[in-house]
């Protein structure tokens, strides 16, 4: 079982930036497609972005295109979040071993981190 750990969340003002990181404990992430998901109170879990393993293909939900960028190296997957809006607030989880295609869903991913809180507020 793959253990994932997220970091980088926090409180930021609208228009600010954060960079989230997702790392595997005891494993390389090169074998897996990685997705970022978020959930706010009273709302359904939403796929934000994902990146494939071998080809490095990426996908983004429409609401974050042009503002968020996903990337990876051998050890870590990153989500750079710029021009943050209050509606970006939520708990962000990374997840591994899913299918990174347009319209990817959380149900395709088998391993999940504990989450990191992102709050965008003035």
Whole-angstrom Rg: 13 Å
Q: How do the helices and strands follow one another from N- to C-terminus?
A: EEEEEEEEEEE
Q: How far is it from the N-terminal to the C-terminal residue, by CA?
A: 40 Å
Q: Return the average pLDDT rounded to an integer.
A: 93
Helix content: under 10%
Strand content: over 45%
Task: Considering the chains and any ligands shown, give keywords for the structure.
mainly beta, globular, 4-stranded antiparallel sheet, 7-stranded mixed sheet, 122 residues, 11 strands
Structure description:
The chain is mainly beta and about 120 residues long. The strands form 2 sheets. Strands 2, 4, 5, 6, 9, 10 and 11 form a 7-stranded mixed beta sheet that branches. The radius of gyration is 13 Å and the shape is globular. The relative contact order is 0.31. The mean pLDDT is about 95.
């Amino acid at each position: 079982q793959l253990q994932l750990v997220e970091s980088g969340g926090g409180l930021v003002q609208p228009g600010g930036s954060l960079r989230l990181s997702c790392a595997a404990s005891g494993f390389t992430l090169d074998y897996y497609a990685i997705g970022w998901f978020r959930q706010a109170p009273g709302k359904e879990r939403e796929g934000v972005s994902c990146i494939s393993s071998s080809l490095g293909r990426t996908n983004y939900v429409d609401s974050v295109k042009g503002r968020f960028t996903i990337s990876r190296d051998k050890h870590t997957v990153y989500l750079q979040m710029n021009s943050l809006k209050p509606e970006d607030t939520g708990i962000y989880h990374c997840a591994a071993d899913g299918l990174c295609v347009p319209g990817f869903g959380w149900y395709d991913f088998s391993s999940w981190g504990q989450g990191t809180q992102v709050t965008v507020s003035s």
